[in-house]
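Case study.
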Amino acid sequence: MDSLSEEITLLIIATGFVTIIIISIIIVVVVYQRKQQLLLKEQEHERNLFSQTLLQTQIEIQEQTLTNISQELHDNIGQTLSVAKLNLSTIKMENAEESLQKINTSKQLITESLTNIRDLAKSMLGEKIAEIGLQQAVQNELKILEHTGLYQISFSTDKAVANICAQHELIAFRIVQETLHNIVKHAEATKIDVDINNVSQQTIITITDNGKGFNIDELKENSTGIGFKNMISRAALINAELQINSTVLGGTKTILLLKE
Amino acid sequence: MFTIITNWLEPFSYLLFFIANIFIFNKSSVKSMALFYYSGIATVLMCAASGCVAFQLTTNNIFFYYLFEIATSFVLIVIIKNISINKTIKKLLFFILLLNAFYSIYLLAIFSSISLFNSLGAVVISFCVMVMTLFYFIQKFKKVELTKIYHTLDFWVIVRFFFLHCTNFFILLYYYYLTKKIYPNGSYNDAVIVTNLWGLHNIVLFISSLIYMQSLWILYQKKLHY
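After joint prediction, the assembly is written out as follows.
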Protein backbone atom coordinates (compact mmCIF):
# COMPACT_ATOMS: atom_id res chain seq x y z
CA MET A 1 0.00 0.00 0.00
CA ASP A 2 2.83 2.34 0.96
CA SER A 3 4.64 1.50 -2.23
CA LEU A 4 1.49 2.23 -4.30
CA SER A 5 0.92 5.63 -2.70
CA GLU A 6 4.61 6.49 -3.20
CA GLU A 7 4.30 5.49 -6.85
CA ILE A 8 1.24 7.73 -7.31
CA THR A 9 2.98 10.65 -5.57
CA LEU A 10 6.00 10.12 -7.80
CA LEU A 11 3.81 10.04 -10.90
CA ILE A 12 1.94 13.21 -9.89
CA ILE A 13 5.20 15.05 -9.17
CA ALA A 14 6.71 13.88 -12.46
CA THR A 15 3.61 14.85 -14.46
CA GLY A 16 3.52 18.26 -12.78
CA PHE A 17 7.19 18.75 -13.44
CA VAL A 18 6.91 17.78 -17.12
CA THR A 19 3.92 20.13 -17.48
CA ILE A 20 5.93 22.98 -15.92
CA ILE A 21 8.80 22.35 -18.36
CA ILE A 22 6.44 22.33 -21.36
CA ILE A 23 4.73 25.54 -20.17
CA SER A 24 8.13 27.17 -19.60
CA ILE A 25 9.23 26.33 -23.14
CA ILE A 26 5.97 27.70 -24.56
CA ILE A 27 6.40 30.92 -22.52
CA VAL A 28 9.98 31.28 -23.78
CA VAL A 29 8.79 30.91 -27.40
CA VAL A 30 5.94 33.41 -26.92
CA VAL A 31 8.21 36.00 -25.23
CA TYR A 32 10.84 35.49 -27.94
CA GLN A 33 8.23 36.04 -30.65
CA ARG A 34 7.11 39.27 -28.98
CA LYS A 35 10.73 40.44 -28.92
CA GLN A 36 10.98 39.51 -32.61
CA GLN A 37 7.90 41.62 -33.38
CA LEU A 38 9.44 44.56 -31.52
CA LEU A 39 12.64 44.10 -33.51
CA LEU A 40 10.64 44.00 -36.75
CA LYS A 41 8.86 47.23 -35.79
CA GLU A 42 12.20 48.87 -34.96
CA GLN A 43 13.67 47.79 -38.29
CA GLU A 44 10.58 49.09 -40.11
CA HIS A 45 10.93 52.40 -38.27
CA GLU A 46 14.62 52.60 -39.21
CA ARG A 47 13.79 51.87 -42.85
CA ASN A 48 11.16 54.62 -42.87
CA LEU A 49 13.57 57.04 -41.21
CA PHE A 50 16.23 56.20 -43.79
CA SER A 51 13.78 56.75 -46.68
CA GLN A 52 12.68 60.08 -45.21
CA THR A 53 16.28 61.20 -44.69
CA LEU A 54 17.17 60.13 -48.20
CA LEU A 55 14.30 62.15 -49.64
CA GLN A 56 15.15 65.16 -47.47
CA THR A 57 18.80 64.88 -48.54
CA GLN A 58 17.84 64.85 -52.21
CA ILE A 59 15.70 67.95 -51.74
CA GLU A 60 18.48 69.74 -49.85
CA ILE A 61 21.03 68.87 -52.53
CA GLN A 62 18.69 70.23 -55.20
CA GLU A 63 18.13 73.42 -53.20
CA GLN A 64 21.84 73.88 -52.62
CA THR A 65 22.58 73.27 -56.31
CA LEU A 66 19.96 75.82 -57.38
CA THR A 67 21.35 78.37 -54.90
CA ASN A 68 24.85 77.79 -56.28
CA ILE A 69 23.61 78.19 -59.86
CA SER A 70 21.71 81.35 -59.07
CA GLN A 71 24.75 82.87 -57.30
CA GLU A 72 27.09 81.84 -60.10
CA LEU A 73 24.77 83.29 -62.76
CA HIS A 74 24.36 86.54 -60.87
CA ASP A 75 27.86 87.09 -59.53
CA ASN A 76 30.06 85.61 -62.18
CA ILE A 77 28.52 84.82 -65.57
CA GLY A 78 26.10 87.76 -65.45
CA GLN A 79 28.90 90.17 -64.62
CA THR A 80 31.19 88.81 -67.32
CA LEU A 81 28.50 88.98 -69.98
CA SER A 82 27.56 92.51 -68.90
CA VAL A 83 31.15 93.63 -69.37
CA ALA A 84 31.22 91.92 -72.79
CA LYS A 85 27.98 93.66 -73.76
CA LEU A 86 29.36 97.00 -72.55
CA ASN A 87 32.50 96.45 -74.58
CA LEU A 88 30.56 95.61 -77.73
CA SER A 89 28.12 98.51 -77.37
CA THR A 90 30.96 101.04 -77.04
CA ILE A 91 32.67 100.02 -80.25
CA LYS A 92 33.27 102.95 -82.57
CA MET A 93 33.69 101.98 -86.19
CA GLU A 94 35.96 104.99 -86.82
CA ASN A 95 38.65 103.67 -84.52
CA ALA A 96 39.42 100.23 -86.02
CA GLU A 97 42.32 99.36 -83.69
CA GLU A 98 40.40 100.09 -80.51
CA SER A 99 37.34 98.25 -81.87
CA LEU A 100 39.42 95.18 -82.62
CA GLN A 101 40.80 95.19 -79.07
CA LYS A 102 37.30 95.50 -77.65
CA ILE A 103 36.05 92.67 -79.85
CA ASN A 104 38.94 90.45 -78.71
CA THR A 105 38.27 91.27 -75.03
CA SER A 106 34.57 90.51 -75.53
CA LYS A 107 35.48 87.23 -77.20
CA GLN A 108 37.64 86.30 -74.22
CA LEU A 109 34.87 87.24 -71.79
CA ILE A 110 32.30 85.18 -73.72
CA THR A 111 34.70 82.18 -73.81
CA GLU A 112 35.19 82.55 -70.05
CA SER A 113 31.43 82.67 -69.57
CA LEU A 114 31.00 79.54 -71.69
CA THR A 115 33.58 77.71 -69.56
CA ASN A 116 31.76 78.82 -66.44
CA ILE A 117 28.42 77.67 -67.86
CA ARG A 118 29.97 74.27 -68.67
CA ASP A 119 31.27 73.97 -65.09
CA LEU A 120 27.89 75.02 -63.82
CA ALA A 121 26.21 72.34 -65.91
CA LYS A 122 28.60 69.81 -64.43
CA SER A 123 27.76 70.95 -60.91
CA MET A 124 24.10 70.27 -61.65
CA LEU A 125 25.13 66.64 -62.02
CA GLY A 126 25.94 66.73 -58.32
CA GLU A 127 22.39 65.49 -57.81
CA LYS A 128 23.20 62.40 -59.85
CA ILE A 129 25.92 61.11 -57.59
CA ALA A 130 25.25 57.50 -58.53
CA GLU A 131 26.28 58.33 -62.12
CA ILE A 132 29.34 60.47 -61.53
CA GLY A 133 30.57 59.10 -58.20
CA LEU A 134 31.18 60.75 -54.85
CA GLN A 135 34.68 61.99 -55.71
CA GLN A 136 33.58 63.75 -58.90
CA ALA A 137 30.56 65.27 -57.16
CA VAL A 138 32.76 66.67 -54.38
CA GLN A 139 35.25 67.97 -56.97
CA ASN A 140 32.44 69.76 -58.85
CA GLU A 141 31.27 71.33 -55.61
CA LEU A 142 34.80 72.56 -54.94
CA LYS A 143 35.09 74.06 -58.44
CA ILE A 144 32.10 76.28 -57.73
CA LEU A 145 33.82 77.53 -54.58
CA GLU A 146 37.04 78.07 -56.49
CA HIS A 147 35.23 80.24 -59.07
CA THR A 148 34.26 82.69 -56.38
CA GLY A 149 37.95 83.53 -56.08
CA LEU A 150 37.58 83.71 -52.31
CA TYR A 151 39.20 80.38 -51.53
CA GLN A 152 42.38 78.55 -52.27
CA ILE A 153 41.16 75.02 -52.91
CA SER A 154 43.16 71.79 -52.85
CA PHE A 155 41.68 68.40 -53.61
CA SER A 156 43.34 64.99 -53.53
CA THR A 157 41.87 61.51 -53.85
CA ASP A 158 42.72 57.82 -54.13
CA LYS A 159 41.82 56.13 -57.38
CA ALA A 160 40.16 53.24 -55.56
CA VAL A 161 37.58 54.11 -52.95
CA ALA A 162 35.48 51.71 -50.90
CA ASN A 163 32.41 50.21 -52.49
CA ILE A 164 29.59 52.26 -51.00
CA CYS A 165 25.96 51.97 -52.08
CA ALA A 166 24.43 54.87 -54.04
CA GLN A 167 22.04 55.88 -51.24
CA HIS A 168 24.88 56.07 -48.72
CA GLU A 169 26.99 58.07 -51.22
CA LEU A 170 24.15 60.56 -51.59
CA ILE A 171 23.90 61.12 -47.84
CA ALA A 172 27.72 61.31 -47.53
CA PHE A 173 27.78 63.91 -50.31
CA ARG A 174 25.16 65.94 -48.47
CA ILE A 175 27.28 65.88 -45.31
CA VAL A 176 30.27 67.14 -47.34
CA GLN A 177 28.08 69.79 -48.98
CA GLU A 178 26.76 70.89 -45.59
CA THR A 179 30.32 71.11 -44.24
CA LEU A 180 31.44 73.24 -47.19
CA HIS A 181 28.33 75.40 -46.81
CA ASN A 182 29.19 75.93 -43.12
CA ILE A 183 32.75 76.97 -44.08
CA VAL A 184 31.38 79.54 -46.55
CA LYS A 185 28.77 80.81 -44.13
CA HIS A 186 30.63 80.89 -40.81
CA ALA A 187 34.34 80.09 -41.06
CA GLU A 188 35.76 83.16 -42.83
CA ALA A 189 38.37 80.82 -44.27
CA THR A 190 40.71 81.45 -47.20
CA LYS A 191 41.93 77.91 -47.69
CA ILE A 192 39.99 74.64 -48.01
CA ASP A 193 41.63 71.22 -48.33
CA VAL A 194 39.61 68.14 -49.21
CA ASP A 195 41.11 64.69 -49.16
CA ILE A 196 39.31 61.43 -50.08
CA ASN A 197 41.27 58.30 -49.22
CA ASN A 198 40.64 54.60 -48.89
CA VAL A 199 42.16 52.92 -45.82
CA SER A 200 41.36 49.28 -44.95
CA GLN A 201 37.99 49.19 -46.70
CA GLN A 202 37.01 52.57 -45.32
CA THR A 203 36.65 55.77 -47.29
CA ILE A 204 37.94 58.69 -45.29
CA ILE A 205 36.87 62.17 -46.35
CA THR A 206 38.85 64.91 -44.64
CA ILE A 207 37.83 68.55 -45.01
CA THR A 208 40.18 71.11 -43.49
CA ASP A 209 39.81 74.89 -43.44
CA ASN A 210 41.92 77.71 -41.97
CA GLY A 211 38.91 79.64 -40.71
CA LYS A 212 38.12 81.09 -37.32
CA GLY A 213 37.02 77.76 -35.87
CA PHE A 214 34.54 77.33 -33.04
CA ASN A 215 34.06 75.77 -29.63
CA ILE A 216 32.64 72.33 -30.38
CA ASP A 217 31.27 71.80 -26.85
CA GLU A 218 29.31 75.04 -27.03
CA LEU A 219 27.86 74.00 -30.38
CA LYS A 220 26.79 70.63 -28.99
CA GLU A 221 24.95 72.26 -26.10
CA ASN A 222 23.55 75.11 -28.17
CA SER A 223 20.12 74.63 -29.74
CA THR A 224 21.33 76.44 -32.86
CA GLY A 225 23.57 73.52 -33.73
CA ILE A 226 20.74 71.67 -35.47
CA GLY A 227 22.71 71.36 -38.71
CA PHE A 228 25.60 69.84 -36.77
CA LYS A 229 23.27 67.33 -35.04
CA ASN A 230 21.67 66.57 -38.40
CA MET A 231 25.06 65.75 -39.88
CA ILE A 232 25.89 63.42 -36.99
CA SER A 233 22.53 61.61 -37.13
CA ARG A 234 22.84 61.24 -40.91
CA ALA A 235 26.32 59.82 -40.56
CA ALA A 236 25.01 57.32 -38.02
CA LEU A 237 22.21 56.37 -40.39
CA ILE A 238 24.69 55.23 -43.03
CA ASN A 239 26.90 53.53 -40.44
CA ALA A 240 29.55 56.22 -40.89
CA GLU A 241 31.48 58.12 -38.28
CA LEU A 242 31.75 61.88 -38.22
CA GLN A 243 34.55 63.56 -36.30
CA ILE A 244 34.81 67.32 -36.03
CA ASN A 245 37.93 68.86 -34.53
CA SER A 246 37.93 72.61 -34.12
CA THR A 247 39.53 75.24 -31.96
CA VAL A 248 38.72 78.94 -31.79
CA LEU A 249 40.93 80.75 -34.35
CA GLY A 250 42.59 77.44 -35.21
CA GLY A 251 40.48 76.24 -38.14
CA THR A 252 38.33 73.15 -38.41
CA LYS A 253 38.98 69.59 -39.50
CA THR A 254 35.99 67.41 -40.38
CA ILE A 255 36.55 63.69 -40.93
CA LEU A 256 33.87 61.40 -42.34
CA LEU A 257 34.61 57.67 -42.11
CA LEU A 258 32.50 55.60 -44.53
CA LYS A 259 32.44 51.85 -44.10
CA GLU A 260 31.86 49.44 -46.97
CA MET B 1 3.35 -3.39 -20.19
CA PHE B 2 5.50 -2.53 -17.17
CA THR B 3 8.39 -4.59 -18.59
CA ILE B 4 8.04 -2.80 -21.91
CA ILE B 5 8.22 0.57 -20.16
CA THR B 6 11.13 -0.29 -17.88
CA ASN B 7 13.10 -2.34 -20.37
CA TRP B 8 12.18 -1.72 -24.02
CA LEU B 9 10.92 1.85 -24.08
CA GLU B 10 14.46 3.20 -23.68
CA PRO B 11 16.00 1.60 -26.85
CA PHE B 12 12.80 2.36 -28.76
CA SER B 13 13.01 6.05 -27.74
CA TYR B 14 16.63 6.22 -28.87
CA LEU B 15 15.61 4.57 -32.13
CA LEU B 16 13.09 7.41 -32.65
CA PHE B 17 15.84 9.90 -31.78
CA PHE B 18 18.10 8.22 -34.35
CA ILE B 19 15.37 8.29 -37.05
CA ALA B 20 14.82 12.00 -36.34
CA ASN B 21 18.53 12.66 -36.83
CA ILE B 22 18.41 10.91 -40.20
CA PHE B 23 16.07 13.71 -41.40
CA ILE B 24 18.70 16.32 -40.68
CA PHE B 25 21.76 14.30 -41.69
CA ASN B 26 24.18 16.73 -43.27
CA LYS B 27 27.82 15.82 -43.91
CA SER B 28 28.93 19.43 -43.83
CA SER B 29 27.49 20.09 -40.37
CA VAL B 30 29.55 18.84 -37.41
CA LYS B 31 26.54 19.16 -35.11
CA SER B 32 24.29 17.13 -37.39
CA MET B 33 26.95 14.43 -37.82
CA ALA B 34 27.60 14.28 -34.06
CA LEU B 35 23.89 13.93 -33.32
CA PHE B 36 23.49 11.27 -36.00
CA TYR B 37 26.36 9.10 -34.74
CA TYR B 38 25.49 9.71 -31.09
CA SER B 39 21.88 8.63 -31.57
CA GLY B 40 23.04 5.59 -33.55
CA ILE B 41 25.52 4.58 -30.82
CA ALA B 42 22.90 5.26 -28.11
CA THR B 43 20.36 3.04 -29.91
CA VAL B 44 22.84 0.18 -30.22
CA LEU B 45 23.98 0.51 -26.58
CA MET B 46 20.44 0.68 -25.21
CA CYS B 47 19.32 -2.29 -27.36
CA ALA B 48 22.30 -4.24 -26.03
CA ALA B 49 21.55 -3.22 -22.42
CA SER B 50 17.86 -4.16 -22.69
CA GLY B 51 18.66 -7.33 -24.64
CA CYS B 52 21.09 -8.48 -21.95
CA VAL B 53 18.36 -8.18 -19.31
CA ALA B 54 15.51 -9.58 -21.44
CA PHE B 55 17.44 -12.61 -22.65
CA GLN B 56 19.23 -13.00 -19.30
CA LEU B 57 22.69 -12.87 -20.90
CA THR B 58 23.97 -10.98 -17.88
CA THR B 59 22.46 -9.42 -14.77
CA ASN B 60 24.87 -6.49 -14.85
CA ASN B 61 24.23 -4.28 -17.89
CA ILE B 62 25.56 -1.02 -16.39
CA PHE B 63 28.64 -1.37 -18.61
CA PHE B 64 26.52 -0.10 -21.53
CA TYR B 65 25.22 2.85 -19.52
CA TYR B 66 28.69 4.08 -18.65
CA LEU B 67 29.66 3.83 -22.31
CA PHE B 68 26.49 5.80 -23.12
CA GLU B 69 27.43 8.47 -20.57
CA ILE B 70 30.86 8.91 -22.17
CA ALA B 71 29.19 9.31 -25.58
CA THR B 72 26.67 11.81 -24.13
CA SER B 73 29.46 13.87 -22.55
CA PHE B 74 31.28 14.12 -25.88
CA VAL B 75 28.20 14.90 -27.98
CA LEU B 76 27.28 17.65 -25.52
CA ILE B 77 30.77 19.10 -25.90
CA VAL B 78 30.22 19.22 -29.69
CA ILE B 79 26.76 20.78 -29.30
CA ILE B 80 27.96 23.39 -26.79
CA LYS B 81 30.88 24.22 -29.07
CA ASN B 82 28.45 24.87 -31.92
CA ILE B 83 25.81 26.97 -30.20
CA SER B 84 26.13 30.59 -29.23
CA ILE B 85 26.63 30.87 -25.49
CA ASN B 86 28.99 32.77 -23.25
CA LYS B 87 32.63 31.66 -23.80
CA THR B 88 33.46 31.33 -20.10
CA ILE B 89 30.38 29.15 -19.52
CA LYS B 90 31.37 27.12 -22.59
CA LYS B 91 34.83 26.45 -21.17
CA LEU B 92 33.41 25.61 -17.75
CA LEU B 93 30.93 23.14 -19.26
CA PHE B 94 33.68 21.56 -21.40
CA PHE B 95 35.74 21.05 -18.26
CA ILE B 96 32.87 19.51 -16.26
CA LEU B 97 31.84 17.24 -19.15
CA LEU B 98 35.42 16.08 -19.74
CA LEU B 99 35.81 15.39 -16.04
CA ASN B 100 32.54 13.48 -16.14
CA ALA B 101 33.70 11.44 -19.12
CA PHE B 102 36.84 10.44 -17.20
CA TYR B 103 34.71 9.58 -14.17
CA SER B 104 32.56 7.33 -16.41
CA ILE B 105 35.72 5.67 -17.77
CA TYR B 106 36.78 5.04 -14.19
CA LEU B 107 33.36 3.52 -13.36
CA LEU B 108 33.61 1.45 -16.53
CA ALA B 109 36.92 0.05 -15.32
CA ILE B 110 35.44 -1.05 -11.99
CA PHE B 111 31.88 -1.89 -13.15
CA SER B 112 32.15 -5.63 -12.45
CA SER B 113 32.55 -4.91 -8.73
CA ILE B 114 29.38 -2.76 -8.55
CA SER B 115 25.91 -4.21 -9.19
CA LEU B 116 23.92 -0.93 -9.15
CA PHE B 117 24.15 1.89 -11.65
CA ASN B 118 25.95 4.98 -10.34
CA SER B 119 23.77 7.80 -11.66
CA LEU B 120 25.99 10.63 -10.39
CA GLY B 121 27.56 11.05 -13.84
CA ALA B 122 24.11 11.30 -15.43
CA VAL B 123 23.13 13.91 -12.82
CA VAL B 124 26.21 15.96 -13.71
CA ILE B 125 25.30 15.69 -17.42
CA SER B 126 21.75 16.84 -16.64
CA PHE B 127 23.11 19.77 -14.66
CA CYS B 128 25.34 20.77 -17.60
CA VAL B 129 22.37 20.57 -19.98
CA MET B 130 20.31 22.83 -17.71
CA VAL B 131 23.12 25.40 -17.53
CA MET B 132 23.61 25.16 -21.31
CA THR B 133 19.87 25.70 -21.90
CA LEU B 134 19.73 28.66 -19.55
CA PHE B 135 22.66 30.41 -21.23
CA TYR B 136 21.40 29.52 -24.71
CA PHE B 137 18.12 31.31 -24.01
CA ILE B 138 19.88 34.24 -22.32
CA GLN B 139 22.02 34.63 -25.44
CA LYS B 140 18.96 34.30 -27.69
CA PHE B 141 17.11 37.00 -25.78
CA LYS B 142 20.15 39.26 -25.85
CA LYS B 143 20.47 38.98 -29.61
CA VAL B 144 17.02 38.49 -31.09
CA GLU B 145 17.01 37.32 -34.70
CA LEU B 146 14.26 37.52 -37.28
CA THR B 147 14.23 33.75 -37.87
CA LYS B 148 11.50 32.04 -35.89
CA ILE B 149 13.16 30.30 -32.97
CA TYR B 150 11.22 27.06 -33.56
CA HIS B 151 12.41 26.97 -37.16
CA THR B 152 15.98 26.24 -36.07
CA LEU B 153 17.63 22.93 -35.28
CA ASP B 154 19.47 24.39 -32.27
CA PHE B 155 16.20 25.17 -30.55
CA TRP B 156 14.82 21.65 -30.89
CA VAL B 157 18.10 20.04 -29.87
CA ILE B 158 18.13 22.26 -26.77
CA VAL B 159 14.44 21.57 -26.05
CA ARG B 160 14.96 17.82 -26.39
CA PHE B 161 17.98 17.77 -24.10
CA PHE B 162 16.42 20.22 -21.65
CA PHE B 163 13.10 18.39 -21.47
CA LEU B 164 14.85 15.08 -20.86
CA HIS B 165 17.63 16.22 -18.57
CA CYS B 166 15.69 18.71 -16.48
CA THR B 167 13.39 15.83 -15.42
CA ASN B 168 16.31 13.41 -15.31
CA PHE B 169 18.23 15.65 -12.96
CA PHE B 170 15.67 15.13 -10.18
CA ILE B 171 14.83 11.53 -11.10
CA LEU B 172 18.46 10.47 -11.20
CA LEU B 173 19.38 12.44 -8.11
CA TYR B 174 16.62 10.59 -6.24
CA TYR B 175 17.75 7.38 -7.95
CA TYR B 176 21.30 8.01 -6.76
CA TYR B 177 20.08 8.55 -3.19
CA LEU B 178 17.97 5.37 -3.31
CA THR B 179 20.72 3.21 -4.79
CA LYS B 180 23.13 4.43 -2.14
CA LYS B 181 20.47 3.55 0.46
CA ILE B 182 19.62 0.16 -1.06
CA TYR B 183 23.17 -0.93 -1.57
CA PRO B 184 23.99 -1.28 2.13
CA ASN B 185 20.50 -2.01 3.58
CA GLY B 186 17.58 -1.34 1.24
CA SER B 187 13.98 -2.54 1.53
CA TYR B 188 11.82 -4.18 -1.17
CA ASN B 189 9.80 -0.97 -1.46
CA ASP B 190 12.96 1.00 -2.27
CA ALA B 191 13.84 -1.48 -4.99
CA VAL B 192 10.35 -1.08 -6.50
CA ILE B 193 10.69 2.71 -6.46
CA VAL B 194 14.10 2.47 -8.14
CA THR B 195 12.54 0.40 -10.95
CA ASN B 196 9.61 2.81 -11.18
CA LEU B 197 11.96 5.76 -11.35
CA TRP B 198 13.70 4.13 -14.28
CA GLY B 199 10.31 3.58 -15.93
CA LEU B 200 9.49 7.26 -15.38
CA HIS B 201 12.81 8.27 -16.89
CA ASN B 202 11.98 6.09 -19.91
CA ILE B 203 8.55 7.72 -20.34
CA VAL B 204 10.12 11.21 -20.29
CA LEU B 205 12.76 10.01 -22.74
CA PHE B 206 10.04 8.64 -25.03
CA ILE B 207 8.04 11.92 -24.92
CA SER B 208 11.20 13.98 -25.61
CA SER B 209 12.10 11.73 -28.56
CA LEU B 210 8.58 12.00 -29.96
CA ILE B 211 8.63 15.82 -29.71
CA TYR B 212 12.10 15.90 -31.27
CA MET B 213 11.14 13.59 -34.13
CA GLN B 214 7.95 15.51 -34.88
CA SER B 215 9.71 18.90 -34.87
CA LEU B 216 12.63 17.69 -37.00
CA TRP B 217 10.16 16.15 -39.45
CA ILE B 218 8.55 19.58 -39.82
CA LEU B 219 11.97 21.21 -40.28
CA TYR B 220 12.85 18.60 -42.89
CA GLN B 221 9.53 19.07 -44.72
CA LYS B 222 9.88 22.86 -44.73
CA LYS B 223 13.59 22.63 -45.64
CA LEU B 224 14.45 24.97 -42.79
CA HIS B 225 17.69 25.79 -40.97
CA TYR B 226 19.57 22.64 -40.11
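Observations recorded in class. The two ends of chain A are 75 Å apart (CA to CA). Residues 134 and 169 of chain A are 6 Å apart (CA to CA). We will return to this complex in the next lecture.
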